[in-house]
Every structure is written in C-alpha cells, then in structure tokens.
Amino acid sequence: MRPAALDLSALDFGALATEASGCTRCELASTRTTVVFGVGDPHARLMFVGEGPGRDEDLSGQPFVGRSGKLLDRLIAEELGMDRTQCYIANVVMCRPPQNRDPRPAEMDACRPFLERKIALIAPEVIVSLGNVATRALLGTPDGIRSLRGRSYPFGGAVLVPTYHPAAALRSGGEVVAEMRADLVRAKRALAGTPG
Ligand code: URA
Question: Does the pLDDT of residue 139 top 70, yes or no?
Fold first, then answer.
C-alpha cells in the first residue's frame, strides 16, 4: 500500500527533524531504537545519501558510525579534505531495517518526503549516492551501481555522483576502494565547477 501523501514544504530543518523523530509512516518505526535523521552542516555544498541505518546507527542516532562509516570518513578526508561536519550525510530511510535487509519500496516511499525536504533545504551543489539502493532511489532507475558510476548526472539544481556503498568496498577490497576514490575526485571537481 502506498503511504499517505505528506507535505513537509513548510518545515525548516529543526521542525523537519522534530517531525521525523516521531514518524510512524512505515513498519520500521516499530523495530527502530532511534530515527537517524542525518548529520553535518545543513548548508553544506556536498551531501552524501546512503541506504539506511545499521545496528550502530540505530543505537547512536548518527548515520555511518560503524565500519562503513569509518571508511567513508577516511575517504572523505583523503579525497575531499573534509570531515563530516563540513558536508551532510543522510540515508534513503531513517530507520533501521531489521537484520539490515534492504529497505522495501513502501518504506522508501514513506521516507521520501523527508529526504526530498532535506535536499531542498540543504540545496547541495553535489550529491554523492552510496550504493545501489540510494542511487536507484534518487535516479529512479533499476540499473546497478557498477554501470551507473563513473559519471555524474544532473539532479535538479545539483549534480549527482553515484559511487559504491562503503560496505561493498569493505567486502570487495582494493579495486572498489580505488573506484570510490575516483568517484569522490569527480565530486570534488564538480564542487570546483570543473567538468568531468
Ligand atoms: N549504511 C548506510 O547505508 N547508512 C548508514 O547510516 C550506515 C550504514
């Protein structure tokens, strides 16, 4: 069943976070510990969008704090010269899917107004989507990250740069990490206004 429409267009960042903290629009609300709204600078020029919270994130309320997050932080520092306070990090769904399964379409649809409002308020110049789930959700394509990465896409007033999910890089190792680094360099160039 499709979730009811939700108009969040009147909410500022604080009001949006408050609204999210009590959200019961999908089944994930019944098993979550914390709503993981996002972290970073609400005026950031660069935004990362992941899939959804895992166990560590569900317990802490912060996105990407587990092993994947440590790798993401390292790559952001090494390739972009930033830390997580200088960008914004969010997920397609704000509540942990049980056993870390992929979020279901109805769950992503339920959370989508929150992600869309976050993107509208932050108005980033560059969005990096992390992995299949986030990239497919944002680009509205069934294609996989392997074929989608390696270039950038217009996304409203922003540029979207797809890359692997850091968990995939942890599983697969060197080559995937190298490709993630190349994607982050692409994001850095887009921030600098340099094509490619
Ligand atoms: N994986 C994600 O996609 N997001 C997180 O916040 C943590 C792990």
Answer: yes
Provide the residue range defining the domain that includes 86. 13-191
In this model, does residue 196 exceed pLDDT 90?
A: no
Q: Say if ligand 1 is within 6 A of residue 57 CB.
A: yes
- Domains held by the chain: number: 1
Q: Is residue 7 part of a domain?
A: no
Answer yes or no: is the C-beta of 64 below 6 A from any ligand 1 atom. Answer: yes
Yes or no: say if 38 and 118 are a contact pair by the CB < 8 Å rule.
yes
pTM to 2 decimals? Answer: 0.96
Within a domain: residue 3?
Answer: no
CA distances from 65 to 9, 32, 99, 140, 176 (A): 29, 16, 17, 27, 20
| Predicted local distance difference test score (pLDDT) of residue 4 | 84
Among 28, 91, 108, 145, the mutation site with the greatest number of ligand 1 atoms within 8 A of its Cβ is 91
CATH number at residue 100: 3.40.470.10
Q: Is the pLDDT of residue 164 over 70?
A: yes
Structure tokens that stand for 15 in this block: 């009001």
How far apart CA 188 and CA 190 sit, in angstroms, is: 5
